[in-house]
Amino acid sequence: MRMLLVEDEKKVSDLVARALRAERFAVDVADDGNRGWELAEAYDYDLIILDLMLPGLGGTELLQRIRRKNQQVPILILTARDATAEKVRNFEAGADDYLTKPFAFAELVMRVKALLRRGPVARSSVLRVADLEVDRLTQQVRRGGRRIELTPKEYALLEYLASNPGRVFSRTMIIEHVWDESFEGLTNIVDVYVRHLRSKVDDPFQIKLIRTVRGVGYGLGESTDP
Amino acid sequence: MNTRSLSFRLVAWYAGVLTTVFILLGLLTFFLLRHYLEVNLLDIQARRARQIADTLVARIRRSDETKLGGEVESLYSPEANDRFIRITRSDGTVVYASGAPKDARFDPVLVPPLPLGVPAADTRKVGPIGGSLLIAARDTKASDGTIYRVEVGASGAPSEATLKHVLMMLAVGLSIAVAVAVAGGFVLVRRALVPVERIAHKAEEITQHNLSERLPVVHSGDEIERLSVSLNHMIARLEDAIHGSKQFVADASHELRTPLTVMRGELESLAQDVLLKRETRESLGSVLEEVGRLAEIVEGLFALSRLDAGEAPAECVRFDLSDLAVTTAEQMSLLAEDKRVTLTCVSSGEVPVKGDRARLKQVVVNLLDNAIKYTASGGQVSLRVRHEGAYAILDVTDTGIGIPASALPHVFKRFFRVDGSRSREQGGAGLGLSIVKSICTAHGAVLEVSSAPGRGSTFRVKQPLANDDVSAQFS
């Protein structure tokens, strides 16, 4: 998979490129709009990540040009502005997703993967992490064959964590996926739910699956901590 | 009536001055007229006295003095003309004295004789004997050298009656004049001050959300036009200043986001490195938490600057506030449970409102979060929704620590904390209530707070009910 990153902030582009390369993607970086257009014209990318504030050719202009040339390629917008009107304008111009700075890199990678996965993808209805099973159809959770009763919110949280085992999700990401935007900034609610989830999923078992990475967030997977 | 109002004071001052001037003018007129009438009457008496002295008295001799009476009677008939005539010889003997006048205004018998040796004054006034009597006297020499004194008098009553009449006319006329002038002045002043009322009314409506509006200017060329123009200039300067500070906040939040992204990204990838020592990871985590808090503040400021800039809400729909409150309270119940705070939600049927559901939900979330945060375990937080008249009322009441009265006016200010150290431990950026306030304002809702320190606080959102025929009003 090859992708184009158009971002003028060197540090941001380094970070994003590094995060994506770590996921085994090939990443080309352009640091202004004109260079971005040259690359987009020359190669057939699987995904384009575009910053809106660019020197030279502006992000929105570049977005429109790419769309005129290629209807298919998924485009993810990065921006420090998040006025609703602007979002709508860019979606209309052909953006597929939108990420507002400062974003968690885990979130960026998730969204990139989600964009690449779009379309009919056969996904197993049962998520497995170690001896934990989350059945998305029946919304039943079992661990070591034993049924665990969860409230709907606890289930939603666990399913989200289990959707990408090993990855760490920030509290903001969890809020956005499990609650809604009204709860933004209310990250303590995540801690409370994780604690409740732990008491049901982890406490009765030897091996702990729910991981806390301080300052980053929570993840699911067999602990690699020493 | 407001006795301190400009119109009242102007009219009162004007009426006072007018009344004083009219009274002085009236008195002056009265006294001048009285003086004129008296002088005039005396002058007539003096001429008549001279006439009698010169034509009758001067021609006779002492032996003929008894004839004088008859001549005076035939020529002047004083009784019929209500006049007093008396002729006295220099030795004090009254030669002739007229009888009682027809109108009986004075009694001639009571008019004191002019004492001998007193030089005959030209005129004199004898006090009220059933009315004043004005008497003119003249001494003259008869043909044989005998000196006689002729006194002619007339009652002052007719002129006094005239004066009384004039006084009455003055009083009535001037009162009417004052009344008309005051009423006219009042109407004029009121009319002149109507633009002031309008300016005041409009000025009260202008807040930071509609600073682009201006006061009405009536091009009358008067001071009020100047005042409204100057006030409008002031509003324009205010608008510039507020716009500038909003722009600054927006730009600053924007500029802060990129470095925050880099910091967070670098730190996150570091923190997930499994080879790190535990202490290093803890420090990284602590730094990341602070970065998170910083990002939260930037987000909050950005959200506020957008709300202040009056950005149109993402959506404007009609929904049931009571339903929103119930679901939100449910979602937050675990948070309360975790702190062993009882969260109750009471609603009375459907309470339809119009607005951006997500933002109004944020209002409920922030208020409940705050209430739970500041209520000790065992306490209670209650959410009540109802309608009252044309308004939807949402109350969030807690039995928490409360807010001191001195801090109440400031709780909606950005970064305001009642007590820095305590609040900081509870987390939060200090922007939650400001955001609540801004969302309420954008929805035309009023946010109020009342509190008793140590017993708890109540936050109240009062929003107009959705009216099917009225589109929601957003600023």
Task: Describe this structure in a few short sentences.
The complex is a heterodimer of chains A (226) and B (475). Chain A contains 8 helices and 12 strands. With 226 residues, chain A is α/β, with parallel strands linked by helices.
Descriptive overview:
- The complex is a heterodimer of chains A (226) and B (475).
- Chain A is an alpha/beta fold and 226 residues long.
- In chain A, strand 4 (75-79), helix 4 and strand 5 form a beta-alpha-beta unit.
- Chain A is elongated and about 60 Å long.
- The mean pLDDT of chain A is 84.
- Chain A has two domains: 2-117, Response regulator (Rossmann fold, 3-Layer(aba) Sandwich); 126-220, Orthogonal Bundle (Arc Repressor Mutant, subunit A).
- In chain A, the strands form three sheets. In chain A, strands 2-1-3-4-5 form a five-stranded parallel beta sheet, with helices on both faces.
- Chain A is built from eight helices and twelve strands.
- The two termini of chain A are 34 Å apart.
- By secondary structure, chain B is of the alpha+beta class.
- Chain B has three domains: 6-161, 2-Layer Sandwich (Beta-Lactamase), CATH 3.30.450; 223-308, Helix Hairpins, CATH 1.10.287.130; 317-464, Heat Shock Protein 90 (2-Layer Sandwich).
- Chain B has nine helices and twelve strands.
- In chain B, the strands form three sheets. Chain B has a five-stranded antiparallel beta sheet. Chain B has a five-stranded mixed beta sheet with strand order 7-9-10-12-11, covered by helices on one side. A two-stranded antiparallel ribbon of chain B has the order 6-8.
- Chain B is rod-shaped and about 165 Å long.
- The interface between A and B is large, with 44 and 55 residues.
